[in-house]
């Protein structure tokens, strides 16, 4: 696992031992960031279920203004911090050691406005619960295995599906939040 492009290009990242995280393959990560090439620079990014931090680090490497990493696994948090040091991107990063569903007070306290949200949850995503309160117009990327895509709800619209491996099933969706309230 490595950083594909930007200021930290080519740096190999550490990973969490065991099978508690599923790092995103480079080809999928490359596809995601090619789609977001015009969006990432100068954006505020949040990496939910951050795992190793590879997605948020890729965003920072490609010019994101800042990234908030949300992860509640202690060993993963240590790996995120180590990877931020390896890439020298820690100045623009903040690691929140919380469950995704507990971060709203921390974001509200600092008046954080998020432009791009990455989420690769370890279990079927509860869409309504996770996206209430995010800013309208934010871009939310659901990363999922091809056989378990997220459901749809009334307040999101799929902007783009990305296909990998099995061309019949999307493995990520770029979703723009609309009329969340």
Task: Summarize the SSE layout with pairings.
Blueprint: H1 26-35, E1 44-48, H2 54-61, E2 66-70, H3 74-87, E3 93-96, H4 104-109, E4 116-119, H5 127-131, E5 139-143, E6 156-163, E7 170-177
Parallel strand pairs: 1-2, 1-4, 2-3, 4-5
Antiparallel strand pairs: 5-7, 6-7
Largest sheet, described in full? 7 strands, mixed
Strand order of the largest sheet: 3-2-1-4-5-7-6
CATH class division: Alpha Beta
Q: Which runs of at least 5 residues are low in confidence (pLDDT < 50)? A: 144-181
What's the β-strand tally?
7
**Percent range of helical residues:** 10-25%
CA(first)-CA(last) distance:
38 Å
From the 3D structure, determine the CATH topology: Rossmann fold
* Principal-axes shape call: globular
The radius of gyration is: 15 Å
Give the rounded overall mean pLDDT: 75
Structural class: alpha/beta
CATH architecture: 3-Layer(aba) Sandwich
Number of domains: 1
Fraction of residues in β-strands: 15-25%
- The number of helical segments is 5
CATH superfamily: Vaccinia Virus protein VP39
Order of helices and strands: HEHEHEHEHEEE
Keywords: Methyltransferase, Transferase
GO molecular function: methyltransferase activity
Protein name: 16S rRNA (Guanine(966)-N(2))-methyltransferase RsmD
Walk me through this protein's architecture.
The chain has 181 residues and is an alpha/beta fold. The protein has a single domain, classed as 3-Layer(aba) Sandwich (Rossmann fold). It has five helices and seven strands. It is globular and about 35 Å long.
